[in-house]
Amino acid sequence: MFIDRAKIRVQGGNGGNGVTAFRREKFVPRGGPSGGDGGRGGDVWIQADGSLNTLLHLKYNPLHIAGRGMHGEGSNRSGKEGDDAIVRVPVGTQIFDPRTDELLCDLEQDAARWLAARGGRGGFGNAHFATSTNRAPRYHQEGSAGEEFEFQLELKLLADVGLVGFPNAGKSTFISTVSAAHPKIADYPFTTLEPHLGVVDLGDFRTFVIADIPGLIEGAHEGHGLGDRFLRHIERTKLLLHLVDVSSASGRDAVSDYEVINHELAAYDPRLAERTQFVVATKIDALDEPERLERLRERAEQDGRQFFTISAVANKGLRELLHAIARKLDELRTNESAQATTHVGESLLVGSGATRF
Ligand SMILES: Nc1nc2c(ncn2[C@@H]2O[C@H](COP(=O)(O)OP(=O)(O)OP(=O)(O)O)[C@@H](O)[C@H]2O)c(=O)[nH]1
Ligand SMILES: [Mg+2]
Question: Which CA distances in Å does 111 have to 45, 48, 86, 155?
């Protein structure tokens, strides 16, 4: 089962207590204070793990407590530190404060980690308190409690390319042909009930990640079909592949399908509707009315969108499409970094303008 929201409670380990003790040895009549310090409690970390893709494991296991520090002992022995607890989450998990909905951290990289709760300090033993005027203190300090918090976790999968389209458009067939992902495929709507990621490898270190999500239908933004909540998993993609079934067997109108999906994208988030979109006519091996294809091509061109035709089953048009995706991603990435540089440049300009005054 795929779960993309979970609430967890984290608790740093309590610090160990210091201890009051005195040296007792033969021939040492009045041994000094020798009570050691308590150990620190362990911390709780939330850490991204590339091998996970759901928050399911946290749904039924919401409490995470780090190890407590051991108490200090005689002979100036400090207590052992508590072990850290590590809460593993998929890459792309965001951590929110459930009281304010503030985003606290976005774990976008594998192995990135965030300190969620600090362990308590260990208490000092009596040896710590010995001074020239008080050589035999008979007190020690208790350890302090670890921090305790609740966090809301939300997974937004990280992919370069998102697949959108009606149920049965051929999204899962496409991703399973071009990557190692194996979502279920069948000739009924809503076969895919959860998102899947697939890595496409074009060789020469050119790889990108595609996300397949459940199909959308008219009114998805009002909860029709499976609703539009899975769109959050393509929010962070750079490019959308809009798959439209143009085969006559579909019994659907390709142009109206195309418009409905774009309408749903806009209703979910206008920025998603503006994202670079390739329009991809699918199942062209089963195309027996070419005008269906041509009408869709014209409609896509009207919107200034690149148009492709494929058949995942007959392996037609896939290579061209994949290479076009790789080129587009390169271009989008270059633009992004160029924009970042102008930003720096602009702020410098503003700075120098101000000093002229
Ligand atoms: N003839 C033909 N059939 C295809 C092609 N691609 C997919 N299909 C068939 O179309 C049906 C639906 O394919 P899926 O890949 O499950 O479609 P989907 O878009 O993932 O559907 P949902 O998961 O329900 O949203 C299946 O019966 C596939 O075999 C194709 O290129 N040619
Ligand atoms: Mg599917």
Answer: 11, 5, 11, 15
